[in-house]
Write a structure and sequence with these properties.
The structure holds 2 protein chains of 2 kinds. Chain A is an all-alpha fold. Chain A has helices at 3-11, 15-37, 40-57, 66-87, 90-102, 109-112, 121-136, 140-151, 156-163, 167-186, 194-197. Chain A is elongated, with a radius of gyration of 18 Å. The chains are: A mainly alpha, B mainly alpha. The interface between A and B is large, with 60 and 50 residues.
Chain lengths: 204, 305
Amino acid sequence: MDEAALITQAQRGDLDSFNRLVLDYQGLAYNVAYRIMGEPAPAEDATQEAFLSAYRAIRRFRGGSFRGWLLRIVTHACYDELRRRKRRPSISLEGFEADSEGGESESNPALASLGDGPETAAERSALARGIQECLERLPAEFRAVAVLADVQELEYQEVAAAIGRPVGTVKSRLARARARLRDCLQGLGELLPASYRLEGETIG
Amino acid sequence: MSSLSNLSPRELEWLSAYADGELPPQEAEGLRARLEQEPGLRLALAEIRQTSGLLRSLPTLKPPRPFTLSAERAAVARRYPRLQLATALAGLAFFLVVGVDVFARAGMAAPRLLAVDQQVAAAPAEPAMDQVQEKEQPLPEEGLQLAPLEAAGTPAPAPAEARAADLAVTPSPDGESAAAEQLAAAPPQTATAPSYADTGQGTQPAQPTREAEALALELQAEATAPGDDQVEAPAGAQEGDQLAAPEPAQEPIGAPSAGQLSEAAPFRTLNRIAGSGLAFLLAEIGLGGAALVLAGLTLRSRRRR
């Protein structure tokens, strides 16, 4: 069954069809939530909350990009979760502990391709955590745009749909987010791939 | 600091969009020309691409568990917004009723104080104006049976016609207090007073008739030690003027029969309940309780989600 048919069935209240959509999109939703939240536990909460909200709201979905529609719910769930955790900071501590445990998941062989020399799994993992920390220093609205456009590689149009803002806003937020990220990432020093450290040399 | 910091916001936005191939063709062409000539701009573009590349290099994480919904959870998810709405509505209704109640109480305080002021001011003076006395003269006897009325809380007869002008501009009370109720029932003509006394709840003061006079006489027999001074009781007259409805002067009707009065009585009772704040109290308790129960259900539902 294709996505449109699943959506139609889900809109009629068919839970199985909705759950198939969940399985299709839970990877994307969780990764977006994780990059915005920065910790596994709150990312999990936000993702679950987003799918519950989507289930309640799916009757109001009027076509267009289902991914954009769903990501909008995910980003809103993340904002809500961030606000909730700001009010109750004790939860962040739990999240931090969980994050430390989950740090292993950041290791990715793909990162090795960025470096000129051989890198250990620990170094790659440290770099991923460093990038994540830089992301977390951005205001939530800028972070969401950077996550959607750069981490998830969405088109501007889709990012605009996901944050509920015009493309112009996406452009300006992404540009500013990248400038801030660049400043932050330079602070990672030795963790960065060698090519990234060659500032001032002629590239491109 | 990176070379991106030296760019204007406009240049930064152009370069960022250019790096993603999202710049309109015309602007992209202009930027390409500048890039050829400005090494600083080229460096900035490279930094943007590297930053973007680093973010793209972040590993894709595997979801820790499936986020599919169980049938029970889905049912709760559907119920939750309804409970939320019901709770919000009950809460809103509760605060509305409390607000109206408080407003009504505050509104009642003013006329009652005014009435008391007038009572005090009128007490030492000759209570009735000449005009009033003239009107009362033909009915000297009716005044006699006013004593029990007043004893029962009903004010002395009000010279309604004489004060018709006052009545027209007097703010209508909400009928909250017992005083207001008594005043509303105050007959403009003494002849009708016995009729109201008969049921204790009069609503339609009327011009005196023979029938009413007969009733008055009947009651008069039951009356104990009426005093002439009470006929001109200034306080009652003043209060009657202040608050009684002006219908008698405007549309005179026959004295209400016992049947009419007994029909009116339940309405008066309802009015009294509403006026005394009992209805407000009941509504407040009911709505407050409903809001609390719904809030409890909503919270439980939220936890189970």
